[in-house]
Specification:
32% strand; 463 residues; 20% helix; 10 helices; globular; single chain; 7-stranded antiparallel sheet; alpha+beta; 25 strands
């Protein structure tokens, strides 16, 4: 027994020596930072105590969803088919019957039934049907449309006040902020999906420098015209487009910012058409070969390549070579940010423009003016409003001056003449000319009346 006890003590002593040697010479130091109590095995980080949108389980979407779903409607676009006498004779088919051509979503923006949606949702409609989230249906009339921003305003007549969403301030939306997309895809009642703001002032079409909010909230065909809201239920965008090779959602969705949509709606209600405030500068596409030759493709801001005569920019003193860094309270690093801000303004608005001029920061107060130039549909003529010198030279205060002509019309000597009429309609300015040319037939006969520099008047007829 004594011998066993001795062996146990020897073994215990040897084990202690071995453990001490391992701790001293072999084991590496390991540190775990914990908060106040060592009983909490949580590693501390630099994350703020209550981060905005820190995790999906920490964000409450229910309030925003409840405020939104009943204010989003289903829009059914119907058109009337053409009559086919042969089909009617052989098959008894009745032409002129309504046939559905498209569906989308819309957002009620007032209790008396004004609804905003996308222009492409209601384009060419003969009849529009609105279905509320409670399945009640109404016929709708088009109050006005703007193809450039893809916004349309509808109206339904209702007996009692409707749930609606007020426009929020899309300039305050932050990249990474949680948002909800609410619409009626696949002919369902209001459907809610969640995501974040992926980018702002996103341009998705090279030919149209529009400014969109990009989100990864799931948006599918039928969501067009629906609401993009933040977690407070504020309307910050009108869902408009997706980027997809399949036609269905793959992670890239785009919405017209609410500040642009609100301005379009206000203009349609007050003026019947959109009032565009023009800065009066020309720029160079950052991806163009000219920009790369001049080392302008990497600049932070918008390079002014030219200033239009008698524009707000010219009156304020902006110059070629200035780099626009900020307009109002919006920082500008690319052209779509500039156009997005200007899309919320009207002629006569005064904005603050901050530029970099030869390395120095300068600030200008610029009054926006009406658009001076326009390329007319169908014929493709480039025209501009008359300057004071033009009014004196041509002895007229109405009409537009032709500044550029497509190749097929070069032989008619149209350039630098003033166009005062199309068919029997008087032309007042470029907006008037664009509207009138947009209503003529591509295949019909059109006449234009011109004034020459010597006062001669001529009328040309195009087949």
């Amino acid at each position: 027994m004594k011998k066993v006890a001795q062996l146990f003590l020897v073994a215990l002593l040897a084990g202690g020596i071995t453990l001490g040697a391992y701790k001293t010479f072999l084991e590496k130091d390991q540190f775990t930072f914990v908060s106040e109590s060592d009983n909490n095995p949580f590693i501390t980080t630099s994350m703020p105590t209550s981060p905005r949108g820190a995790g999906i389980n920490e964000v409450d979407f229910t309030i925003a969803a409840e405020k939104t779903v009943h204010a989003v409607v289903h829009v059914k676009n119907m058109t009337v088919g053409t009559s086919n006498p042969i089909a009617e004779f052989f098959y008894g088919y009745k032409g002129g019957q309504p046939s559905q051509v498209g569906t989308g979503s819309g957002v009620i923006i007032s209790p008396d039934g004004y609804i905003v949606t996308n222009n492409h949702v209601i384009d060419n409609a003969k009849n529009l049907e609105i279905t509320l989230n409670n399945n009640r249906s109404y016929d709708a009339e088009v109050v006005g449309t703007d193809a450039n921003s893809d916004i349309a305003l509808l109206k339904i007549n209702v007996e009692e006040p409707l749930p609606y969403l007020a426009f929020g301030d899309s300039d305050n939306a932050k990249i990474g902020e949680w948002v909800l997309a609410v619409g009626n895809p696949f002919n369902l009642t209001s459907t809610v999906t969640a995501g974040i703001v992926s980018a702002k002032a996103r341009s998705i079409s090279p030919g149209r420098n529009q400014s969109f909010i990009q989100t990864d909230a799931a948006v599918n065909p039928g969501n067009s015209g629906g609401a993009l809201v933040n977690t407070n239920g504020d309307l910050i965008g009108i869902n408009t487009a997706i980027t997809s090779q399949t036609g269905s959602y793959v992670g890239y969705s785009f919405a017209v910012p609410s500040n642009i949509a609100k301005k379009v709606v206000d203009d349609l209600l007050e003026f019947g058409k959109v009032q565009k405030g023009i800065l009066g500068v020309t720029t160079i596409n950052a991806n163009s070969s000219v920009a790369k030759e001049k080392n302008l493709d990497q600049i932070d801001g918008v390079y002014i390549n030219g200033v239009e005569d008698e524009s707000g920019a010219a009156d304020a003193g902006l110059q070629e070579g200035d780099i626009i860094k900020q307009v109002g309270n919006v920082r500008v690093s690319k052209f779509s940010e500039l156009t997005g801000y200007l899309s919320t303004k009207r002629p006569g608005d005064i904005i603050e423009v901050i530029v970099d001029r030869n390395g120095k920061t300068e600030t200008f107060e610029v009054e926006l003016k009406k658009k001076m130039t326009e390329i007319l549909p169908i014929m493709g003529l480039e025209v501009k409003n008359l300057s004071k010198d033009d009014e004196k030279a041509f002895k007229t205060k109405k009409g537009v001056k032709i500044t550029n002509v497509p190749e097929r019309f070069r032989g008619y000597e149209l350039e630098d003449k003033v166009m005062i009429m199309i068919d029997d309609e008087e032309i007042k300015d470029v907006d008037d000319a664009k509207e009138l040319f947009g209503s003529i037939s591509r295949y019909g006969r059109t006449s234009i009346t011109l004034l020459g520099k010597n006062g001669e008047r001529e009328r040309l007829i195009f087949q």
